[in-house]
Amino acid sequence: MRCITRPIIPIIHKRFKKPAVEKFKEGIFKITAVEAIKNAPVGTPTHKITGELTIKDKTHTEEFLAVITKKEATFNATAEAEIKDRTQYDIVYNSSKFKAVSVLGDKLIQDNIKIQLDLKTN
Question: What is the pTM of this model?
């Protein structure tokens, strides 16, 4: 499998100029499996993609559903994925798991991270 490396935390990088953010500018997602979804209706995900996501030297298995198409020699994949718990990657800033919601107030940051993917290969 090819390793796909993309900067997946640029918003965090722009907002917080902390030493840890400077040290960990990118995340890495290594695809370990791609499984076709049989009889997927048009416009719905056609594949389940599984891989190892590494952020801040913490690696966990993640999977998401994607629409994969092929046109000539080019593959396109689009997906919306969600990491349910950012704290497992040591992204703990203003998480309710580490500070009381009553203390954080409007500074609370939810623990989920939404990722949109639009990949093209050839």
Answer: 0.71
